[in-house]
Amino acid sequence: MDVFGSFTLLLAFVCAVYAFVGGIAAIITRHPLLVKSTRQAGIATCVLIFIGTFSLEYLLFSDNFSQAYVVSHSNRDLSAFYKIAALWSGQEGSLLFWSFLLAVYVISVLIAYRHKNGELMPYVGVVLAGVQIFFLTLNNFVESPFKALANVSASGALEPFVRMDGNGLNPLLQYPEMVIHPPNLYSGYTGFTIPFAFALAALLARYPGEKWIHLTRKWTMIAWCFQSIGILLGAHWAYAVLGWGGYWGWDPVENASLLPWLTGTAFLHSVMMQEKRGMMKVWNVWLVFCTFLLCILGTFLTRSGVVSSVHAFANSQIGPWFVGFMLLTLVVCFVAYVKNHDYLKSENQLDSMISRESSFLFNNLLFLVACIAVLSGTLFPVFTEWFTPSRISVGAPFFNKIMIPIGLAILFLTGVGPLLAWRKTSVDSLKRNFTWPLVAGAVSAVLAYLLDYRNAYALVCLFLCGFVFWTIVMEFYRGAKVIAARSGMSMMMSAHELAMRNTRRYGGYVVHFGMVLIFIGLAGAAFNTDVQKTMNLGDSMKLGPYTLVLQSADTKPEKNYTAERMIVEVMKGNKQIMMLYPEKRAFQGRDQANGTMVAIYSTLREDVYVVFAGIDPDTNLPVIHAFLNPLVKWIWLGGVWVVMGTLLALMPNRRAALVIAGATQPAASPVAPALTPSVTLREGHD
Amino acid sequence: MIKRRSVFVLAVVIAMGVLPLVAQQQPADRVKAIGGKFQCMCGCGQILTQCNHVGCTMSAAMLKNLAEWVNRGDSEATITQAFVQQFGTTVYAEPPKTGYSMIAWAMPAVYFVVGATLVLLVISRWRKRPQAAGVDAAAPVTAAGVKISQEAMERGRAQAARETED
Q1: Can you name the CATH fold of B2-94?
Q2: CA of B63: how far to CAs of A127, B36, B47, in Å?
Q3: I want to staple A6 with a disulfide (CB 3.0 to 4.6 A). Which of A39, A146, A470, B21 is the partner?
Q4: B1: exposed, middle or buried (C-beta count within 10 Å: 0-12, 13-18, 19+)?
Q5: Of A362, A380, A393, Cβ closest to residue B39
Q6: What pTM was estimated for this model as a whole?
Q7: Which residues have C-beta within 8 Å of that of residue A139, sequence separation ≥ 6?
Q8: Scanning every residue of chain A, which has its alpha carbon at the shortest distance from the alpha carbon of B51?
Q9: How confident is the model at residue A60 (pLDDT cuts 50, 70, 90)?
């Protein structure tokens, strides 16, 4: 199976090269058969990558310990669930997984548009094949996942060698979220290849109008959604597994995942300027290019070991390949832009400084500043090593100081943007629109102050959360009121109808609502407290309003690990709240470190987060580290709303329709209401 | 009288809010605050006060030193110097605000100022742009008596449709 897998990847590489070279020839000659054959080569590339990936999974599931990758990342007792995750737990498998997910997108695009956009698709196919060639080069010639173990015999010849068992999966990755977090994050990274391919193709083909944007809008949202889910799941994994009490440590790899998300978010906003006003065409194209390049940079940072990180799962020689690919991509984008920039001539014209357009410009500015600040902070240690004799670290305190004000400014614009009209907003309208949101913000801040959330940044954040929340409520209320008045539906039904008629707009507001919840959760971090104590059985510790009592300890053998558990009772006053079971896991397999499993009692107000930190070497007693983290649950709830909002935005708009609604007749009406249905035109924006 | 009372109430409210912020820190708080600016040097990459590896000899020793220096009344600068002498500049969790490291702190502000200037320039340039609208003889006349070309009307209709979509 290893030879088979290796062969399919090699064949996929050949097909991708044909799709690329043949695609260029098809663009030049415009020969329909050549166009068709290169498209089919593109599809074949994807199918072969699927087969190659399934071959590796087969080797993992069949415990084929003649394979280096299987030995390094699996063992016999590893559950099937984690054998799936073993695919992306190592360098080689992870790069193959990149190719796999990219192939899913590519085959979807090639099949979905096989009879459409005939002028554009050959260019798209060439760009996609180019990206696939790069990753297949890594899969085949640099980091092949199909390497058999071999021993050198007495005669000096290489002999196949089979190990009895494998080393097992990294304990940090043996957590349910690790089976879904990387695929989501990678789906985000790879998904941005599609808008990139369309943008570059449209530029190369001088494809008219904004059609490439309409074609890629949904793909961009899908990639953005996956990226958001991936980032949040990663944060939750860090919270529940790493045991340091937080969810975001501004680790270089975390930062790497945030960078394309920031530019992708900027793009999703600025693209509206192009669609509605024909503005910012050059900016949008470059935002897409940068987002793709940042995705590649993210993979590079995670995989090359150029920056030290708890997440940098590998330290290898693939760095120069990635740098080369990024430079090549940048050159291609730049040349395409220089040659065809006249095609991007915009209809840029602004009527007023106080307008939706201006708010989008500032929104983009803030996202870009955030992105560049995070990028430069992440790479600063590398630069200091180049220019000074020592390496200067840049950690969480730096990023918090820099990013909190930027984040608050973005939150402010999240509220302001929808209150401003396109083109121009009058002073009267400003007064009318801003009064109640400002009041709501002030009420939120006062409430927070009274509830003892007394920190300057947190209060500003909660003020803005109230402000933005009210703008969203107003948007739904105003629209729903009109529909309710015309159709006779209830306000709830009208709000639903409103959202369904313009899913993109109201889906966007739902996403904004999710972000408000996330910011409330982030504000809570200002009030985190923690206590660490060496405890004997029966000992207790105070944590805010809670008392934690170490009741007992036990050992729980599982199939792939043995858990040493502490049984901690959580009390509030004299009332027992619940039992928590923080544990340390000793995994089987050679070279495997211990894993942590945090126990959390989570409410909307706060999390009681208990870690069994280990055994004190001096006293031989367990050490319990407990954290009181306010409002964390709001972050995860916010994430759910962000996903729901994106899904809503992906749905097609419900068209305006003629409906027969039972009219409410005045009491004096001579005719019975049931006999006189009135015809109401449901208003839609489309 | 009412005015004086209002001023007094306001002063009390402000004092209640501000006093906790300016109150002198206890040694344990200082250890936490200063320790939050360094990294544990065991290689875990965590903030010194957040290193959660029980038995980590590095963080335990560093925190012990830090507590001693804080209790002795050493200034933050002296403590920082001592750590840097011992471990080098990699001990910083955030770059110092001196010398070459100032670049790290200054850059985000520079990005923002440059970006905001560019945005303002772009806005002012776009605001000055004239409307491009040709007029033909057969063009419809608006209520104000202004002739608008057919092409401009079509463009306007398309734009209105686009802008009312969202």
Answers
A1: Helicase, Ruva Protein; domain 3 (1.10.8)
A2: 54, 11, 11
A3: A146
A4: exposed
A5: A393
A6: 0.86
A7: A9, A13, A52, A92, A95, A96, A99, A145
A8: A244
A9: very high
